[in-house]
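call fold target=oligo-1,6-glucosidase
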Amino acid sequence: MNLAWWKQSVVYQIYPRSFMDSNGDGIGDLQGIISKLDYIKNLGIDVIWLSPVYKSPNDDNGYDISDYQDIMDEFGTMKDWEELLANVHERGMKLIMDLVVNHSSDEHPWFVEARKSKDNPYRDYYIWRPGKDGREPTNWYSNFGGSAWEYDETTDEYYLHLFSKKQPDLNWRNAKLREEVYNMMKWWLDKGVDGFRMDVINFISKPEIFPEGDPKPGKKYASGSKFYRNGPHIHDYLHEMNQQVLSAYDVMTVGEMPGVTPELARLYTEESRKELNMVFQFEHMGLDNGPYGKWDLKPLNLVEFKQNLTKWQKALEEIGWNSLYFNNHDQPRSVSRFGNDKEYRVESAKMLATLLHMMKGTPYVYQGEEIGMTNIQFESIDDYRDIEIHNFYHEQKEEGISQEKIMKSIYVKGRDNSRTPMQWNSTNNAGFSTGTPWIKVNPNYTEINAEKEVSNPDSIYHYYRALIQLRKNHEIIVNGGYDLVDEDHPEIFSYKRTLHNQTLLVICNFYANEPVFTLPATILYKSAHVLISNYQQSDGSLGEQLKLKPYEARVYLLTGA
Ligand code: NOJ
């Protein structure tokens, strides 16, 4: 296969705070990660994506950076980081870092300077506006609730923060700021990092004037996202970054892009445009959102889910490239969300993995996904740590919403679902820490843990290993065309991949029912065998009708069409 390495790779995301604590302070750290690299390597992983490890006051767990070129004290030192990189490389893996440059921390020296006076040389590194009629410059809400503008008394102006007020947005219109960012990126690349995951990178280009948004009935604040997502100069900035920094290195880039459409994703990832390699899109993650957004719960409609993922597969089939994910540190656990985390936890986790890993694109595995970790339900709001959850809780309380309704939303969608400590074994604190973990461990760790998974050949972990191995052994998985099969079936997600004279047929039952799959007459083949399945298949042949078991997944390799 003559393809870029990142098209043939599988990525593992580490959320360092919750991965492995080596010194008993209850917080995961770099030495902890080093101690688990063999576990990751044995899974078959090619690339590790490290969520932020930079200096940070941790208002948003490291996504608020006060020094881009230093390491957070709780995580270790620069020496530890260098040791981590060397150890990753020694094992033949690559390391990509999180690049968080839509905003910095308000404790970053640039912002400390900027807020001192209107003529401070750093003032224009951020976005300042005077108030309008005694209130905020616009009615936009922040993504973490409340206004997106914070009043700063010293200079009697407001600054923009699309996330928490401790995450002021950087002003990308300022060429000096852009140069500082590019120099910082080069500094990390020269240290040997293999690329970047870019945090909300399609938010960096703000409009020249800031219009009002349309509030939903009864709401004070409105979304400003149509003005700042994929803004006026976004392609110029990404192209400039590519030309000034990335093009000199053999690295991979993935841009996190809420609100990106397939049409835009083609522009961001078309090779000849020299912007990014791939993006994280969010459409499939929004299909269980009601009209009021993520906390407004709505059941998933499988047909919509199929149509959506298919739209992305087709849109980036020839131009650009897809990233494939169901989990990350901002999303609930997929086995609880789309599968069944009770009696069919193992089957449904394997089914979801099959569905994702047989698609075209670069798959991402989020820590704990490979052992089927589940959502958490803390009784008390005090046990939650996420700023987004707390802001949501307090706003809802003020609006008089019932405790039960608020907690239901948090149980289903809260980000802490995926941030409980990694479950390594059945000892105290799941083997994550000898101290008191910064967030409570999911009590199901005695049942669900890595040690148990690794020692059981039928486990979810070994199933992920097998899927990853299949991608390495079969070009059709990396490179084959994609087509949805039986698009209207309400319970089965089936698709085929084709390359030369081969067809890969993927059949996934999304529910605990036992539906019948009918082989379309258009699928012709001479021989068939099962490549992988989450149930024992007594015989590898493919009949015209298959009765599927709960959450059953089967992948057939058909030859000689
Ligand atoms: C997206 C990150 O994934 C999320 O964790 C963070 O809170 C926001 N961007 C702000 O940086």
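return ok
The first helix runs from residue 30 to 35. The first strand starts at residue 11 and ends at 14.
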